[in-house]
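Aggregate trends can hide what the representation actually does to any particular protein. This step matters because it turns folding into a mapping between discrete strings. For completeness, the protein is quoted in full, as a sequence line and a line of structure tokens:
=====
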Amino acid sequence: MTEGIGLERARLVAELGPGTGVFTDAILARLAPGARLVAVEPNAVLASRLAATRHDTRLTVVQGTAAGLAAAVGEPVDAMVSGLPWTVMPRSRRGYILDAVTEVLVPGGRFTTFAYLHAAWTPPARHFAAELARRFDRLECSRTVWANLPPAFVHRATRRA
């Protein structure tokens, strides 16, 4: 999830749906000392737990949704990592969140999220991939990570310049 999206050179990174912080830890491991990570978590309990257990001055945890993404980050974002469950949310909500993502990404900024292999053929997954293609200039899919249960792959997208 954190490979190939320029985290090492980023000044500001956003994370959508950090949950328990698995990706948060991987992002922080790659961030430069002067960079910032803003993690936006809709679940108040998870946001509170994440803030209480991560003692890194580069991390700001915001309890909120994509509706407040621009206000939460406060400036353009170089890269964004998402752990949101795209295929189980209504299509209109997916579109709204992706619009918020592209609004805050710098031109050439990178967005990454994952998908489960067994669901890749479903209509919601195909619609999500089409929505990414409409909004981003370049799309890549990682190799399948078979060790993940269930097996998954990563979407990497680059915002139009």
The longest strand covers residues 105-116. The beta strands are 12-16, 36-41, 59-63, 77-82, 105-116, 136-141, 152-159. Helices lie at 22-30, 44-53, 69-73, 91-104, 123-135. The two ends are 22 Å apart (CA to CA).
